[in-house]
């Protein structure tokens, strides 16, 4: 694993280090990571299959949930299998183009995940605050337009990342001190001033995250105001229960995202093990939690899955 010291515009490969200082625990760390990946894949595929098979679930909430499930599958599959090869097989080498592709999928689909959380918050707002207009406002064509807008935004804002990194010369080392090809970890290897590139990445991430976060919070403030005006206590509890699961997943996603962003911006004294571990949680936990929270706590999906299992047993 000799570092390459000569200047190269496009090196053949990089070396992923994993979690610095915890290399002796990589095999054990891979076990819970693999378990979370299996749950994420099985859970999200189950949601997609159930919604596709059950026409009564072709409603805005479940259609947005399907978009979120596809995003989770791409996000987790673009990182976990490669990470497990690193932990269990010692496969440190990753081709330069594969590294750039992984980086694009991670950042663009993370932005899409944030966008779909916002779309789901809008759906909850319309369903609770404007229930009589829900079907008229969120038609299938409008849902498709919202999904396309989230997709285009993620691709448009993060396509420059691999293009910019492709143009940089790399002369310091080929070793990436991370478990996957994270943008900031790769850009540090360049032997030219990358201040503008770093600022672009941080600016895009902060604008997308802060805008989505603001409108999500605003939506839920309006939802809570409408919920507490409901005359029935049972209706209030039902509405709060529906929104509570959404809020828990959103909090996990944004808390880890904010920690990662602040670490890049200000946390120069944060131990690399903590930073990398939180960055992994940022990618692993939402795909793992989403099918559990939305699948188990959503009565229609839960009943459909249970009825299918009973039919197979019989």
TrEMBL record:
It is found in: Membrane. It is a multi-pass membrane protein. It comes from the Eukaryota. This is Putative olfactory receptor 52P1. One of its GO terms (cellular component) is plasma membrane. Keywords: G-protein coupled receptor, Membrane, Olfaction, Receptor, Sensory transduction, Transducer, Transmembrane, Transmembrane helix. Residues 43-294 form the G-protein coupled receptors family 1 profile domain. Its main location: membrane. One of its GO terms (molecular function) is olfactory receptor activity.
């Amino acid at each position: 694993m000799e570092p390459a010291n000569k200047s190269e515009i496009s090196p053949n490969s990089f070396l992923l280090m994993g979690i610095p200082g915890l290399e002796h625990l990589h095999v054990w760390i891979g076990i819970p990571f693999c378990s979370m990946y299996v749950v994420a894949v099985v859970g999200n595929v189950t949601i997609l299959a159930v919604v596709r098979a059950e026409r009564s679930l072709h409603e805005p909430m479940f259609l947005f949930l399907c978009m979120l499930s596809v995003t989770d599958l791409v996000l987790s599959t673009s990182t976990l299998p490669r990470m497990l090869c690193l932990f269990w097989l010692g496969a440190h080498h990753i081709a330069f183009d594969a590294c750039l592709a992984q980086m694009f999928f991670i950042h663009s689909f993370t932005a899409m995940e944030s966008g779909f959380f916002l779309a789901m918050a809008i759906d909850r707002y319309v369903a609770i605050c404007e229930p009589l207009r829900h079907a008229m406002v969120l038609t299938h064509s409008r849902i498709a337009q919202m999904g396309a807008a989230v997709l285009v935004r993620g691709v448009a804002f993060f396509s420059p990342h691999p293009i910019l990194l492709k143009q940089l010369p790399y002369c310091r080392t080929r070793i990436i001190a991370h478990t996957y090809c994270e943008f900031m970890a790769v850009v540090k290897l360049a032997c030219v001033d990358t201040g503008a590139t770093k600022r672009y990445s941080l600016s895009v991430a902060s604008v997308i995250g802060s805008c989505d976060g603001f409108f999500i919070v605003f939506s839920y403030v309006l939802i809570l105001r409408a919920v507490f005006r409901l005359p029935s206590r049972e209706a209030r509890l039902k509405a709060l229960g529906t929104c509570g699961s959404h809020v828990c997943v959103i909090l996990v996603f944004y808390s880890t995202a904010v920690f990662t962003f602040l670490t890049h911006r200000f946390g120069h004294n944060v131990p690399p093990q903590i930073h990398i571990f939180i960055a992994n949680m940022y990618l692993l936990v939402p795909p793992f939690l989403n099918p559990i929270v939305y699948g188990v706590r959503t009565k229609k999906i839960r009943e459909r899955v249970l009825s299918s299992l009973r039919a197979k047993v019989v």
